[in-house]
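Collaborator request log, item 7. Partner lab (contact: R.S.) asked for a structural prediction of DUF506 family protein to inform their binding assays.
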Amino acid sequence: MEKISLPTRFKRVTAGFDEVARARLCESSGSEHSEDNSADLSDLIDSFMERNDGNEKDDIVDKHRDIYDGVWSDSETLELLQSLVALDGVDGDVKKTIRDEAERACCMVGISSSEGFKRRLMSRLRERGFDAGLCKSRWERSGQYPAGSYEYIDVVVAGKRYFVQVSLAGQFTIARPANCYVSFLNTLPQIFVGKAEEMKQVVKIMCRAMKESIKRNDLYLPPWRRNGYMQAKWFGSYKRTTNVGSGAENLMRFEKLPGFYGNCRV
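Returned to partner:
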C-alpha cells in the first residue's frame, strides 16, 4: 500500500492525542493486574477527553471528537483508516516482518475459523523466533453490554506490543452493509499488525462507520457491535500464554489494558 498523506486536521489532532492517550494506553502493557481490576466496557479512546476538567476546552479535543461525530467526510475518515493499517512509519519494517511471517504461517496451520487456529499460529511464530503469545480477554456484564471473552495473538518486539489479527474485517461484518461501509471493510488487511494506539483507533473508526451503515438501513445495532464491547475484546484484562499445547497455560499473566490470502485460505 502506498504511503498516504494525512489530512492536516488529523496531524494536529494526533499531536495532542498521543501525549495524553499514551499515558492511558500504557496500562495495557507490562503491569500485573487482578481479575477484579478488569477494564470496564466504556469507550477507551474517548476516556482521555473525559479527563478534561472542563476548565480547558482544548481545540485539539474538539477536533478529535469531530473525526467521529460526522464532521469529517467519509473519504477523509477512509483515508485515516488507510494510514492506520499501512505498514509504514518508524516501525514499518517490524510490522512487515511480522505480517510476512504470519502470512507464511497461515498457509501451514489451516483455516482461521478452525479450532485451535490461533494457538497453532502463535506456536508457528514462536518457532520462527518471535515472542508471540495467545491472549484471552474476558469481561463481565456491564450495563447494556453482555459478558464475553475473546482470543487474539500478540508479538512483543523490543518491549513494544503488536497485535496480530487475521481476518479483522470479519469482526465487523453486518447485514446489508452500505456501499461506503463496504469500502471500509475492504480497506482492512487480511492480516492486521499494529500497536495498541492503532488498533484502538481502527476499532473506533469501524464501529462508527458500522453504526452509520446500520442507521441508514433502519436496522438495530446490537450491544455486541457497539464500540465499548468491541474495544473490550482487545483491551479488557487478559491472560497471556506462550504454551503451544492446549492444556496447561504457562508464562501466563493478567494484563490491563474468512477470507483468502494468495493461494492459502485463512
